[in-house]
Amino acid sequence: MRPRQVPTAAAVLAATVLHVIGGASGAAAAPPAGACHNPDPGRNQVRAQPWAQQILDPQRAWPHSRGAGVLVAVVDSGVDADHPQLRRPGKVHRGRDFYLAGALPGAFDCVSHGTGVAGIIAADPVPGIGFHGVAPDAQILPVRINDRDVGGQGESLRIDPQVVANGIRYAADRGAKVINLSLAGLDDFPTIRAAVAYAVATDALVVAAAGNAQRDTTTELPAYPAAYEGVLGVGAVDIDGARMAGSQIGRHVDLVAPGAKVLATTRVAGHTYVDGTSYAAPFVAGTAALVRAAWPELTAGEVARRLVATASPARGGRDSRSYGAGVVDPYRAVTDGLDPDRPAALPAYVPQPPDQAQLDRAAWEHDTADTAKLLATVVSGGIVLAGLVVAIASRGRRRRWRAGWAATVPTEPTVVEPPEQIFLISEPKRE
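and the corresponding structure tokens:
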């Protein structure tokens, strides 16, 4: 485990003064002097809409929730609060740096990892840029716990467990309703386990990356803190919906989200394409912020169950070791069972007086119909009777009206005898 770098007292004092003077200006998120020894370079802006935003389409949920009022803690490498999509006043809090000694803020980033995570959660949509966060009205609490101890895919084996635990407890104490942990390791550290349990007890929903150490499709590797009780573990899928190579499998995978070649914000105002379950986790954390804003009465555990229950089907089927319950679905997570409009009150029932004219007309129509049926029956009977009279009169004239007798019925039926011989073919010759 690498020892933490401790800046000089002068550097810490200068950094603190810089932050206080900077206020909400661009200098506020500039790294303190001496804090970044090998900072990532700035990146260009990417204007195209990323595939993850197209597939998840969180804008569909925005008419019902944009995450307003929900504080999401990003326990990571810090957050560049000067990024154009994160600089809206009140979006990124000052936070705290637990990695360097001193009273430093967490609102700066040397390596862009935490800035990318924060952007996926809550980046504002801006004209001309396709990228945006899942919950743009959510607030970010940056908790800086590392620098270069997190690799490009979120490897965190060298992070000081006590620093991580301190960051988690701080986030819970500051009222974070969602805590994003885009880090994973193979070791179960009691201090981190206790900090996670502390956060869960404060009703914070803890979302953690499932890890990127998978080398085959059969071996289940441990992944902490994703495997801790009360934590929502997130695996990564690619643009085709297949498990990203390296995304760990096992019972700790509750959901999956885009994590292969996804676009994320970087320090110094840019964007870049990244891989890893570290970047899948914030898609779920952002969705959790949407749900907590739309359904404030739900507990963290109920929010987690809602996210799992509304997930879209994935390749592995329901509850698979690779895909969990499926792909997170922001729209369904927010809207299933939601009726944003209160039902209108029914007017009091006032009986209307009967329309006598209408009743009279209905009675007249009914009587007229009965009369017509009776007349039709009488006319039909008269026609039949007239036909019988005509038939009888015609027969009587032919007989000159004399009485006639019916033919006598024989007492015994006449029997017709067959010939004595019947030859079927021909009569035989006689000699």
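(Above: one complete record from the training split.) The chain has two domains: 36-335, 357-397.
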